[in-house]
Amino acid sequence: MIAICGYMLFGWTALESFYMVVITVFGVGYGEETPLKETPEKLFTIFVILAETSATIIDLKKRSRYDLRHYFYVN
User: How far separated are the first and last CA of the chain, in Å rounded?
Assistant: First the structure.
């Protein structure tokens, strides 16, 4: 929801914003609804990708019954 609102602040419609979030988060790769021309739009898209990837990893780790330290050497 935050990502959709963020794209709307750049002047995109609600549908364009939703579409952009879906293709960005799921890595579909169809291309942008509206080309990302400005640096702030590109930085915001990078933020969306990093935030969603981080949230997914955290969620999977919480749901997992495995302790990942068994698979990686941790000091």
Answer: 38
**Residue owning tokens 């990302």:** 36
Tens of pLDDT, residues 20-65: 888 888 877 676 667 777 888 889 888 988 998 888 888 887 777 6
What is the value of pTM for the model shown?
A: 0.65
To the nearest 10 degrees (0 to 180), the angle between helices 14-25 and 2-9 is: 130
Would you say 7 and 16 are in contact if contact means Cβ atoms under 8 Å apart?
A: yes
| Contact yes or no for 3/55 (Cβ under 8 A) | no
> In this structure, are residues 41 and 34 in contact, taking their beta carbons and an 8 Å threshold?
no
CA–CA separation, 39 vs 60, rounded Å?
A: 32
User: CA 17, CA 70: separation in Å to the nearest integer?
Assistant: 41
